[in-house]
């Protein structure tokens, strides 16, 4: 791998023949990434389509390797999941996001909800609820300012158990959303029994909704479904004013995407929030 120098893309390309070896290399490097402080979070605003105000943000992980540069979470999160490293990484993510949320409150910024991604493997840990409660307590973030983004594939898991866990999470007061909604094999009847607050429409539908009617149909169906179940609905991957206008016209509640802002550093997010900038 050395002779590839600092070309991270080549090193970690999934198309390479020696895929397994590269996965192992990546896993070894990822193992030391937390201790060596190579991980950090960026924050992407979520804005309300009625008020135009920032209502929250999503914390997204970044990995900057000293030699290979930026490695995308699309590459290393699946490896973290397979290897079990996601537990340690997820713990770091939750703690860091909660500490950041607490720091923003202490700085007198308008209170907003911070969303953290929770992978299936994390969700199925026995001590998930206790872990979330413990982290909130340790960081001093009030539970209503934390949202957990769950993936739709949870619906393929043990329904009883997922229902119970979502209920317990509601009881400690955190918010729940279902990420990438529409891409999985959601059974709508189960969706009702999960104690979630928000459906997040997957960006693949949003990206193509103005050019392909099938995508618009799905976007409108998810908005209607969410509202009929008394859930909030947010569209991700909103890149243009036309996307925004269309979603506004069709009663989507919130948007997230490059149109308003890319994911940004904590200090930048604080300035944006402070400035009161609207959509
Ligand atoms: P996701 O949860 O669906 O996050 C949204 C992704 O879309 C992010 O990519 C974000 O940067 C990107 N995005 C936001 N707005 C736009 C837009 O307008 N256009 C386009 N083209 N893209 C946009 P990112 O940060 O590369 O993360 C990729 C995925 O990695 C995430 O997808 C999530 O599944 C996973 N991930 C990221 N951070 C974490 C984490 O802390 N824990 C876990 N378990 N997974 C994470
Ligand atoms: Ca997400
Ligand atoms: Ca998503
Ligand atoms: Ca996604």
UniProtKB/TrEMBL annotation:
Stretches assigned to the EAL domain: 23-277
Protein known as: PAS domain S-box-containing protein/diguanylate cyclase (GGDEF) domain-containing protein
Taxonomic source organism: Methylophilus rhizosphaerae
Lineage: Bacteria, Pseudomonadati, Pseudomonadota, Betaproteobacteria, Nitrosomonadales
Stretch of the intact protein here: 833 to 1111 of 1116
